[in-house]
Fold each of these.
Amino acid sequence: MKTLAVTKINKIRNAKRASYDENTIHTILDQGLIAHVAFSHDGDPICLPMVYGRIDDKIYIHGAKATRMFKQLKQGIPACLNVTLVDGLVLARSAFHHSMNFRSVNIHGTAHLVEDEDEKYDALVAITDHMMPGRWDECRDMTKKEANATSVIALTIEQAAAKCRSGMPVDDDEDYALDHWAGIVPITTQFGEAINDDQLRDGIPVSPSIEKITGPTR
Amino acid sequence: MKTLAVTKINKIRNAKRASYDENTIHTILDQGLIAHVAFSHDGDPICLPMVYGRIDDKIYIHGAKATRMFKQLKQGIPACLNVTLVDGLVLARSAFHHSMNFRSVNIHGTAHLVEDEDEKYDALVAITDHMMPGRWDECRDMTKKEANATSVIALTIEQAAAKCRSGMPVDDDEDYALDHWAGIVPITTQFGEAINDDQLRDGIPVSPSIEKITGPTR
């Protein structure tokens, strides 16, 4: 078990919710679907949702070379990536102590363009398989043109931390005697049944990667 | 129906996914649970998940006065707020054309501290009721001490845009003849049944706001 160094930028003020354990951080990242990536553009902060993939201690995002985001990020600028899993509403007796149960990771670092062709290929596999494990091998092969049109940006999971809350509300001592209902409402994200593309050729069954997470296609 | 002005900062490159219609933007904001807020701190971008509320064309976030985020934001610095609803995985015949169905809003602007006491109170109601409509009135009254410990920051929904994708994958023409399965997998976020606080006094039923979105408490 590896613990990341705590520095000024990744230190979480509320120590009891903080974790710098690499396994905890990787597990949250692997369970998320989208990340929010922040960077600065002409002095203005920009925050965009992105799909992503992880290989060891690297997070990869991809996009068309022509986009503002990738033109910026490939220059090696500071970026911040957040993945948040929302687990439930926390309903206290006072509005003040309302909260959410969540597991969240922040990664701070310098985004850099992945130039090595093998690393880039592996990153694209990781991003596709993050969305749906095993999906890359079910697709037709990537063309050279597609690879050329795509940029991959990496961030190292080093200046990072997890912040999590779980469990019941924490009310002021004297409020526990009140008549107000308190508790939690769990939140779950679910995959529904796969829906065939309108133009799917007859007789093509839903592929194994999709069957694994959903029911049979309608 | 009001349409927001398109400027350099809120313009979305992929025009067919963009909307500047205020109703569309408000509807997405009202359906989200958490926002991601980006701002700059000592030159580094920071991106944090926050609960939020909306009143008309203002988005409000709140937090303890002592936090780094609120110390920064109250100075009136540029901020970017994103709310993203993920509706499904879009699985194409090529990995390249994989995508997500989503509805997303970005708001760019200058965060400012809410100093007016009435506006601040209304904002705190909006934030609590955004999480669970009607919940504010079910809580014990806010104390002066709680109000004093809390900062509220506002962002105006002006330099804003929605970006949405829906529907089936769009593959290259020649790929529709291939044998690869393609389609979508819907994603839904669901509230489970409310769970009573361990320390809830006997005989207190789950409150109406919670019953409205979930089943009876266990």
Note: Chain B has two domains: 15-171+181-187, 191-218.
Amino acid sequence: MNKNELIQNIRRKKSFLCVGLDTDLKKIPPHLLNDDDPIFAFNRAIIDATAEYAIAYKPNLAFYECAGARGWLAFEKTVRYLREHHPDTFLIADAKRGDIGNTSALYARTFFEETDVDALTVAPYMGEDSVTPFLGYDGKWVVLLALTSNKGSADFQLTASADGERLFERVLRQSQEWADDERMMYVVGATQGRMFEDIRRIVPRHFLLVPGVGAQGGSLDEVCRYGMNADCGLIVNSSRAILYADRTEAFATAAAREARAVQQQMAAYL
Amino acid sequence: MNKNELIQNIRRKKSFLCVGLDTDLKKIPPHLLNDDDPIFAFNRAIIDATAEYAIAYKPNLAFYECAGARGWLAFEKTVRYLREHHPDTFLIADAKRGDIGNTSALYARTFFEETDVDALTVAPYMGEDSVTPFLGYDGKWVVLLALTSNKGSADFQLTASADGERLFERVLRQSQEWADDERMMYVVGATQGRMFEDIRRIVPRHFLLVPGVGAQGGSLDEVCRYGMNADCGLIVNSSRAILYADRTEAFATAAAREARAVQQQMAAYL
């Protein structure tokens, strides 16, 4: 999906909500555990219930890998289901990959050819040649970690160099030499508040993928006030608050209600 | 495997060779492609041929993920095979994971419980709470990226802070507050030459996992001269030079010959 299509979807749905498919067998409604593929059964129900209110979905690979080969099948089935039934949604594999060039190229093949997602989260620590192999695909995106939502983001990401530039700022600045805002987005945690102002000074036009609203304590209002740009420029993720709103057979209805509530808040900012 | 057992294996085998199981269906001998599970068939033959000369094996997950669910099964079978038939080898999953706390905890469960490897490579960008979930397992190790072997390692890892400390040095120093040398190792690329001296000033006692000898151009002699400590302190990885020494039915014999040649070089440094 290209940037213009993404912006059109946001305008049409009046939403910049991404539903994080962090599907945990310990948290899904117990009656689904009898299904042949409980992870996929849960995902399908969540997707169908929330697609009206969401413009993106983000499976985090950790939740699939921990179920081994069965988990990978469930991930692949989820991607195919979204592609077939909800082709207007932006699909992000949250895998935080990154390796030497020939190995990153393999990860790129996995996520952009074998399983046809729109975007992959990538860790910047190994530098340019660990990221560029993901950039050779038309309509595919790298979502590079910049300033994450967790407490540990302060350990290295905020370290200032001799000239006062913090590491996340260096990542934002330098990575723009590798790809523009049609091919690259950045992860910025919702918990970072006014830091969005600093980020927008460096990447005014890029989309930001923003996790950390809800369970992790980030504020949608702050994110919008300091992070939004003329194209919206935000994809705000919510996982647990929507997925696990209810553990009975009414879980999908509850998820829809939660997603709709977030969408309505979002509409007010658009 | 604990540190003392690892050191004993190095002394007994007179080797600190790790064979990187970067198994690529495009590069393995064509006759294996008729096997039910060509990845595992190749790995098993390579392992049996080289186990006399190697103290560690390191499957890089990118090579398994790109075959989807079948790839994961091949990875799991490889781990089980090593555990059963070569229990004296140290088993590193090269996955370069790292995420917010609860997600890193899932990755830890995947690699240390579901598939019983000894160590996992982890990326440091997200800081302490992205790494510590991997540290709660007895006899299991985090191998943290410090100074990698690729060109892009210069982009961020060498950035000096206001007080002159480079990012990789900060990672080495700060991560010692999270775990000691019985639980943590570091990735340092063989291509870094005399930088090993700087690294040994900060982590004199830790094991270093050293990729980049061979195809990537690193020198075993430099690595040993500047990186070795009293316990050896090195696990040097070689992948392509051993795995793809020959593409005929004699591939395993050729791999053994290559591994033996490296082991004999290593013995001279021990």
Note: The first helix of chain B runs from residue 3 to 13.
